[in-house]
TrEMBL record:
<dbReference type="Pfam" id="PF01018">
    <property type="entry name" value="GTP1_OBG"/>
</dbReference>
<dbReference type="InterPro" id="IPR006169">
    <property type="entry name" value="GTP1_OBG_dom"/>
</dbReference>
<keyword id="KW-1133">Transmembrane helix</keyword>
<dbReference type="GO" id="GO:0000287">
    <property type="term" value="F:magnesium ion binding"/>
</dbReference>
<dbReference type="Pfam" id="PF01926">
    <property type="entry name" value="MMR_HSR1"/>
</dbReference>
<dbReference type="GO" id="GO:0005739">
    <property type="term" value="C:mitochondrion"/>
</dbReference>
<dbReference type="InterPro" id="IPR036726">
    <property type="entry name" value="GTP1_OBG_dom_sf"/>
</dbReference>
<feature type="domain" description="Obg">
    <location>
        <begin position="13"/>
        <end position="148"/>
    </location>
</feature>
<comment type="similarity">
    <text>Belongs to the TRAFAC class OBG-HflX-like GTPase superfamily. OBG GTPase family.</text>
</comment>
<dbReference type="InterPro" id="IPR045086">
    <property type="entry name" value="OBG_GTPase"/>
</dbReference>
<dbReference type="GO" id="GO:0005525">
    <property type="term" value="F:GTP binding"/>
</dbReference>
<keyword id="KW-0547">Nucleotide-binding</keyword>
<protein>
    <recommendedName>
        <fullName>GTP-binding protein 10</fullName>
    </recommendedName>
</protein>
<dbReference type="InterPro" id="IPR031167">
    <property type="entry name" value="G_OBG"/>
</dbReference>
<dbReference type="InterPro" id="IPR027417">
    <property type="entry name" value="P-loop_NTPase"/>
</dbReference>
<feature type="transmembrane region" description="Helical">
    <location>
        <begin position="312"/>
        <end position="333"/>
    </location>
</feature>
<keyword id="KW-0342">GTP-binding</keyword>
Length: 351
Protein backbone atom coordinates (compact mmCIF):
# COMPACT_ATOMS: atom_id res chain seq x y z
CA UNK A 1 0.00 0.00 0.00
CA UNK A 2 1.23 3.47 -0.85
CA UNK A 3 -0.57 6.56 0.48
CA UNK A 4 -3.75 4.52 0.79
CA UNK A 5 -3.60 3.38 -2.82
CA UNK A 6 -2.34 0.22 -4.39
CA UNK A 7 0.99 0.48 -6.20
CA UNK A 8 1.08 -0.65 -9.80
CA UNK A 9 3.81 -3.20 -10.37
CA UNK A 10 5.56 -4.04 -13.61
CA UNK A 11 7.54 -7.09 -14.57
CA UNK A 12 10.76 -6.32 -16.36
CA UNK A 13 12.35 -9.76 -16.13
CA UNK A 14 15.87 -10.75 -16.99
CA UNK A 15 17.66 -8.14 -19.00
CA UNK A 16 20.93 -7.43 -20.76
CA UNK A 17 23.29 -4.76 -19.47
CA UNK A 18 26.16 -5.22 -21.94
CA UNK A 19 26.32 -6.18 -25.60
CA UNK A 20 28.99 -6.63 -28.25
CA UNK A 21 28.08 -5.73 -31.82
CA UNK A 22 29.82 -5.88 -35.20
CA UNK A 23 29.81 -2.61 -37.17
CA UNK A 24 31.08 -2.00 -40.71
CA UNK A 25 31.14 1.19 -42.73
CA UNK A 26 29.95 0.98 -46.31
CA UNK A 27 32.38 0.35 -49.18
CA UNK A 28 33.04 3.31 -51.47
CA UNK A 29 31.72 3.40 -55.04
CA UNK A 30 33.79 2.69 -58.14
CA UNK A 31 35.45 5.65 -59.85
CA UNK A 32 35.34 6.34 -63.62
CA UNK A 33 38.94 6.36 -64.93
CA UNK A 34 38.12 7.54 -68.43
CA UNK A 35 36.09 10.55 -67.28
CA UNK A 36 37.89 11.15 -63.98
CA UNK A 37 34.71 10.54 -62.02
CA UNK A 38 34.75 9.80 -58.28
CA UNK A 39 32.72 7.09 -56.60
CA UNK A 40 30.51 7.96 -53.66
CA UNK A 41 31.77 7.51 -50.11
CA UNK A 42 30.41 4.55 -48.17
CA UNK A 43 27.82 5.16 -45.47
CA UNK A 44 28.76 5.51 -41.78
CA UNK A 45 27.50 3.56 -38.77
CA UNK A 46 26.14 5.69 -35.92
CA UNK A 47 24.91 4.87 -32.43
CA UNK A 48 21.95 7.07 -31.52
CA UNK A 49 20.62 7.41 -27.95
CA UNK A 50 16.88 6.83 -27.84
CA UNK A 51 14.43 6.55 -24.97
CA UNK A 52 12.47 3.33 -24.39
CA UNK A 53 15.15 1.27 -26.11
CA UNK A 54 16.94 -1.63 -24.43
CA UNK A 55 19.93 -3.78 -25.25
CA UNK A 56 17.65 -6.80 -24.97
CA UNK A 57 15.46 -5.34 -27.72
CA UNK A 58 18.48 -4.76 -29.95
CA UNK A 59 19.57 -8.37 -29.51
CA UNK A 60 16.04 -9.59 -30.17
CA UNK A 61 15.60 -7.59 -33.38
CA UNK A 62 19.14 -8.20 -34.64
CA UNK A 63 20.21 -11.61 -33.30
CA UNK A 64 23.34 -11.61 -35.46
CA UNK A 65 24.32 -8.22 -33.98
CA UNK A 66 25.77 -7.06 -37.30
CA UNK A 67 25.27 -3.51 -38.57
CA UNK A 68 26.56 -2.58 -42.03
CA UNK A 69 26.13 0.79 -43.76
CA UNK A 70 25.27 1.12 -47.45
CA UNK A 71 27.88 1.21 -50.23
CA UNK A 72 28.60 4.42 -52.12
CA UNK A 73 27.24 4.79 -55.66
CA UNK A 74 29.54 4.19 -58.62
CA UNK A 75 30.61 7.06 -60.81
CA UNK A 76 28.86 7.05 -64.18
CA UNK A 77 28.49 9.13 -67.31
CA UNK A 78 25.26 10.64 -65.99
CA UNK A 79 26.65 11.23 -62.48
CA UNK A 80 30.42 11.64 -62.34
CA UNK A 81 30.26 12.13 -58.57
CA UNK A 82 28.65 9.08 -57.00
CA UNK A 83 26.24 9.57 -54.10
CA UNK A 84 27.20 8.71 -50.54
CA UNK A 85 25.99 5.37 -49.21
CA UNK A 86 23.12 5.19 -46.73
CA UNK A 87 24.15 5.62 -43.10
CA UNK A 88 23.23 2.90 -40.61
CA UNK A 89 21.78 4.23 -37.34
CA UNK A 90 21.55 1.91 -34.34
CA UNK A 91 19.16 2.98 -31.59
CA UNK A 92 20.66 2.36 -28.13
CA UNK A 93 19.44 3.12 -24.58
CA UNK A 94 20.42 6.23 -22.67
CA UNK A 95 23.38 5.87 -20.31
CA UNK A 96 25.50 3.75 -22.63
CA UNK A 97 29.30 3.64 -22.49
CA UNK A 98 30.89 2.67 -25.82
CA UNK A 99 34.32 1.02 -26.02
CA UNK A 100 36.30 -0.71 -28.74
CA UNK A 101 37.37 -4.36 -28.59
CA UNK A 102 40.77 -3.33 -27.18
CA UNK A 103 39.14 -1.40 -24.33
CA UNK A 104 39.58 2.08 -25.76
CA UNK A 105 36.82 4.49 -24.75
CA UNK A 106 34.89 5.73 -27.78
CA UNK A 107 32.32 7.83 -25.96
CA UNK A 108 29.12 7.93 -23.91
CA UNK A 109 25.47 8.53 -24.77
CA UNK A 110 23.51 10.09 -21.91
CA UNK A 111 20.82 12.21 -23.57
CA UNK A 112 18.21 11.38 -26.18
CA UNK A 113 19.40 12.25 -29.67
CA UNK A 114 23.13 12.12 -28.92
CA UNK A 115 25.15 10.29 -31.58
CA UNK A 116 28.52 8.55 -31.80
CA UNK A 117 30.27 7.55 -35.02
CA UNK A 118 31.56 3.98 -34.63
CA UNK A 119 32.44 2.99 -38.22
CA UNK A 120 33.35 5.37 -41.04
CA UNK A 121 32.58 4.49 -44.64
CA UNK A 122 35.35 3.94 -47.19
CA UNK A 123 36.17 6.63 -49.74
CA UNK A 124 35.03 6.20 -53.31
CA UNK A 125 37.34 5.44 -56.20
CA UNK A 126 39.33 8.49 -57.32
CA UNK A 127 42.65 9.45 -58.84
CA UNK A 128 44.50 8.87 -55.55
CA UNK A 129 43.18 5.30 -55.29
CA UNK A 130 43.54 4.56 -58.99
CA UNK A 131 39.73 4.89 -59.14
CA UNK A 132 39.29 1.81 -56.96
CA UNK A 133 37.01 2.09 -53.89
CA UNK A 134 38.17 1.48 -50.32
CA UNK A 135 36.38 -0.69 -47.81
CA UNK A 136 34.69 0.83 -44.79
CA UNK A 137 35.97 0.67 -41.23
CA UNK A 138 35.24 -2.56 -39.36
CA UNK A 139 35.29 -3.05 -35.61
CA UNK A 140 33.67 -4.84 -32.69
CA UNK A 141 32.02 -2.37 -30.33
CA UNK A 142 31.13 -3.04 -26.69
CA UNK A 143 27.98 -1.35 -25.36
CA UNK A 144 27.94 -1.10 -21.58
CA UNK A 145 24.88 0.14 -19.68
CA UNK A 146 26.18 2.44 -16.93
CA UNK A 147 23.03 2.66 -14.81
CA UNK A 148 20.62 -0.25 -14.52
CA UNK A 149 18.40 0.61 -11.54
CA UNK A 150 17.55 3.09 -8.80
CA UNK A 151 18.15 0.49 -6.10
CA UNK A 152 20.46 -2.53 -6.12
CA UNK A 153 19.96 -5.48 -3.77
CA UNK A 154 23.39 -6.47 -2.45
CA UNK A 155 24.20 -9.54 -0.38
CA UNK A 156 25.83 -12.92 -0.17
CA UNK A 157 24.20 -15.90 -1.92
CA UNK A 158 20.90 -17.13 -0.43
CA UNK A 159 20.34 -13.95 1.59
CA UNK A 160 16.83 -13.60 0.18
CA UNK A 161 17.37 -10.89 -2.46
CA UNK A 162 15.36 -12.68 -5.13
CA UNK A 163 12.51 -13.36 -2.71
CA UNK A 164 12.43 -9.69 -1.78
CA UNK A 165 12.33 -8.58 -5.42
CA UNK A 166 9.51 -11.02 -6.17
CA UNK A 167 7.45 -9.45 -3.37
CA UNK A 168 7.98 -5.79 -4.26
CA UNK A 169 7.49 -6.24 -8.01
CA UNK A 170 6.07 -8.66 -10.54
CA UNK A 171 9.53 -9.84 -11.53
CA UNK A 172 9.92 -13.61 -11.29
CA UNK A 173 13.57 -14.32 -10.46
CA UNK A 174 14.70 -17.89 -9.93
CA UNK A 175 14.44 -18.77 -6.24
CA UNK A 176 16.11 -21.86 -4.77
CA UNK A 177 17.84 -23.05 -1.59
CA UNK A 178 21.26 -23.32 -3.23
CA UNK A 179 23.80 -20.51 -3.84
CA UNK A 180 24.18 -18.49 -7.03
CA UNK A 181 20.67 -18.92 -8.41
CA UNK A 182 21.06 -15.34 -9.71
CA UNK A 183 23.89 -15.02 -12.23
CA UNK A 184 22.57 -11.97 -14.08
CA UNK A 185 20.73 -8.95 -12.66
CA UNK A 186 16.96 -9.34 -12.51
CA UNK A 187 15.05 -6.07 -12.80
CA UNK A 188 11.66 -5.13 -11.38
CA UNK A 189 9.87 -1.79 -11.41
CA UNK A 190 7.39 -0.27 -9.00
CA UNK A 191 5.00 2.37 -10.33
CA UNK A 192 3.24 4.55 -7.75
CA UNK A 193 -0.22 6.11 -8.08
CA UNK A 194 1.41 9.45 -8.95
CA UNK A 195 3.19 7.65 -11.85
CA UNK A 196 6.63 7.96 -10.32
CA UNK A 197 8.71 4.81 -10.55
CA UNK A 198 11.47 3.01 -8.69
CA UNK A 199 13.50 0.36 -10.48
CA UNK A 200 14.97 -2.43 -8.33
CA UNK A 201 17.72 -4.82 -9.41
CA UNK A 202 18.40 -8.19 -7.82
CA UNK A 203 22.18 -8.38 -8.20
CA UNK A 204 24.22 -11.61 -8.28
CA UNK A 205 25.44 -12.73 -4.87
CA UNK A 206 28.94 -11.71 -3.80
CA UNK A 207 31.56 -13.87 -2.09
CA UNK A 208 34.59 -13.10 0.05
CA UNK A 209 37.43 -11.96 -2.19
CA UNK A 210 35.13 -10.56 -4.87
CA UNK A 211 37.15 -7.31 -4.88
CA UNK A 212 40.18 -9.37 -5.99
CA UNK A 213 38.11 -10.89 -8.80
CA UNK A 214 37.65 -14.20 -7.01
CA UNK A 215 35.09 -16.25 -8.88
CA UNK A 216 33.26 -13.71 -11.05
CA UNK A 217 33.89 -10.94 -8.53
CA UNK A 218 34.54 -7.96 -10.79
CA UNK A 219 31.74 -8.92 -13.17
CA UNK A 220 29.29 -9.03 -10.27
CA UNK A 221 30.65 -5.90 -8.53
CA UNK A 222 30.31 -3.99 -11.79
CA UNK A 223 26.55 -4.22 -11.36
CA UNK A 224 26.77 -2.57 -7.92
CA UNK A 225 28.32 0.52 -9.53
CA UNK A 226 25.36 0.79 -11.87
CA UNK A 227 22.73 1.49 -9.23
CA UNK A 228 21.96 4.82 -7.57
CA UNK A 229 21.41 3.38 -4.10
CA UNK A 230 22.11 0.10 -2.34
CA UNK A 231 19.97 -2.12 -0.16
CA UNK A 232 22.09 -4.64 1.75
CA UNK A 233 20.14 -7.85 2.37
CA UNK A 234 21.53 -9.92 5.26
CA UNK A 235 20.45 -13.28 6.68
CA UNK A 236 19.93 -12.77 10.43
CA UNK A 237 21.10 -16.34 11.08
CA UNK A 238 24.46 -15.67 9.41
CA UNK A 239 26.09 -17.02 6.27
CA UNK A 240 28.32 -19.88 5.24
CA UNK A 241 29.04 -20.50 1.56
CA UNK A 242 30.25 -24.09 1.97
CA UNK A 243 31.63 -26.57 4.48
CA UNK A 244 35.13 -25.36 3.60
CA UNK A 245 34.45 -21.72 4.47
CA UNK A 246 34.10 -20.03 7.83
CA UNK A 247 30.68 -19.24 9.29
CA UNK A 248 29.90 -15.51 9.43
CA UNK A 249 27.42 -13.85 11.78
CA UNK A 250 24.97 -11.25 10.50
CA UNK A 251 27.23 -8.46 11.74
CA UNK A 252 30.31 -9.99 10.13
CA UNK A 253 28.30 -10.34 6.93
CA UNK A 254 27.51 -6.61 6.92
CA UNK A 255 31.17 -5.78 7.51
CA UNK A 256 32.36 -8.12 4.77
CA UNK A 257 29.87 -6.80 2.23
CA UNK A 258 30.80 -3.18 2.81
CA UNK A 259 34.49 -4.07 2.89
CA UNK A 260 34.28 -5.86 -0.47
CA UNK A 261 32.69 -2.78 -2.02
CA UNK A 262 35.23 -0.41 -0.48
CA UNK A 263 38.21 -2.50 -1.57
CA UNK A 264 36.81 -2.79 -5.08
CA UNK A 265 36.21 0.95 -5.49
CA UNK A 266 36.54 3.54 -2.78
CA UNK A 267 34.00 5.77 -4.56
CA UNK A 268 31.29 3.37 -3.43
CA UNK A 269 31.67 4.88 0.06
CA UNK A 270 29.50 7.79 -1.06
CA UNK A 271 26.67 5.67 -2.45
CA UNK A 272 23.54 5.86 -0.23
CA UNK A 273 22.77 2.55 1.46
CA UNK A 274 20.14 0.88 3.63
CA UNK A 275 20.13 -2.45 5.47
CA UNK A 276 17.46 -5.16 5.32
CA UNK A 277 17.66 -8.04 7.80
CA UNK A 278 15.94 -11.10 6.39
CA UNK A 279 14.61 -14.44 7.71
CA UNK A 280 13.31 -12.99 10.97
CA UNK A 281 10.93 -15.94 11.29
CA UNK A 282 13.80 -18.25 12.30
CA UNK A 283 14.26 -19.36 15.94
CA UNK A 284 16.13 -16.84 18.16
CA UNK A 285 16.02 -14.28 15.34
CA UNK A 286 14.96 -11.46 17.67
CA UNK A 287 17.92 -12.09 20.00
CA UNK A 288 20.26 -12.08 17.01
CA UNK A 289 18.70 -8.84 15.80
CA UNK A 290 19.18 -7.16 19.18
CA UNK A 291 22.84 -8.18 19.16
CA UNK A 292 23.26 -6.91 15.60
CA UNK A 293 21.74 -3.55 16.54
CA UNK A 294 24.17 -3.17 19.45
CA UNK A 295 27.14 -3.97 17.25
CA UNK A 296 26.05 -1.59 14.51
CA UNK A 297 25.79 1.25 17.02
CA UNK A 298 29.23 0.56 18.48
CA UNK A 299 31.86 2.61 16.58
CA UNK A 300 34.61 0.29 17.81
CA UNK A 301 32.93 -2.71 16.21
CA UNK A 302 32.09 -1.03 12.95
CA UNK A 303 35.02 1.27 12.23
CA UNK A 304 36.50 1.82 8.78
CA UNK A 305 33.49 0.61 6.82
CA UNK A 306 31.12 2.31 4.41
CA UNK A 307 28.16 2.90 6.68
CA UNK A 308 30.30 4.11 9.58
CA UNK A 309 31.25 7.45 8.07
CA UNK A 310 28.94 10.45 7.86
CA UNK A 311 26.13 8.19 6.58
CA UNK A 312 25.92 6.26 9.89
CA UNK A 313 23.28 8.44 11.65
CA UNK A 314 20.60 8.04 8.98
CA UNK A 315 21.68 4.45 8.34
CA UNK A 316 20.80 3.57 11.93
CA UNK A 317 17.74 5.82 11.88
CA UNK A 318 16.31 3.64 9.19
CA UNK A 319 16.73 0.61 11.36
CA UNK A 320 14.50 2.22 13.99
CA UNK A 321 11.72 3.95 12.05
CA UNK A 322 8.09 2.84 12.51
CA UNK A 323 7.49 -0.68 11.14
CA UNK A 324 11.28 -0.95 10.99
CA UNK A 325 13.48 -0.86 7.95
CA UNK A 326 14.57 -4.19 9.35
CA UNK A 327 12.36 -6.28 7.09
CA UNK A 328 10.70 -8.92 9.23
CA UNK A 329 9.36 -10.90 6.31
CA UNK A 330 8.24 -10.52 2.70
CA UNK A 331 5.00 -8.70 3.60
CA UNK A 332 6.76 -6.10 5.72
CA UNK A 333 9.48 -5.79 3.11
CA UNK A 334 7.00 -5.02 0.37
CA UNK A 335 5.08 -2.57 2.53
CA UNK A 336 8.14 -0.63 3.68
CA UNK A 337 10.02 -0.66 0.41
CA UNK A 338 7.06 0.60 -1.58
CA UNK A 339 6.42 3.60 0.67
CA UNK A 340 8.50 6.40 -0.74
CA UNK A 341 8.02 8.62 2.32
CA UNK A 342 10.57 6.33 4.01
CA UNK A 343 13.32 7.08 1.49
CA UNK A 344 16.21 9.11 2.99
CA UNK A 345 15.51 12.84 2.78
CA UNK A 346 19.14 13.38 1.72
CA UNK A 347 18.62 11.13 -1.29
CA UNK A 348 16.91 12.30 -4.44
CA UNK A 349 13.35 10.96 -4.66
CA UNK A 350 12.80 8.30 -7.32
CA UNK A 351 11.43 9.56 -10.62
Amino acid sequence: MVWGSRALLRKYGNFIDDLRIYVKGGTGGMGHPRLGGEGGRGGDVWLVAKEKTTLKRIKGRFPQKRFVAGAGANSSVSALKGEKGTDCEVDVPLGISVTSCDGKQIGELNKAGERILVARGGIGGCLVTNFLPLKGQIQIVHLDLKLIADVGLVGFPNAGKSSLLSRVSHAKPQIADYPFTTLKPELGKIMYPDYKQVSVADLPGLIEGAHANKGMGHKFLKHVERTKQLLFVVDISGFRLSSKTRFRTAFETVLLLTQELELYKEDLRTKPALLAVNKMDLPNAQDSLNELMKQLQNPQDSRAHLFCSQELPWFLLYLNIPFGSVFCGPTWAARMFMQRQYWPSSVEQPR
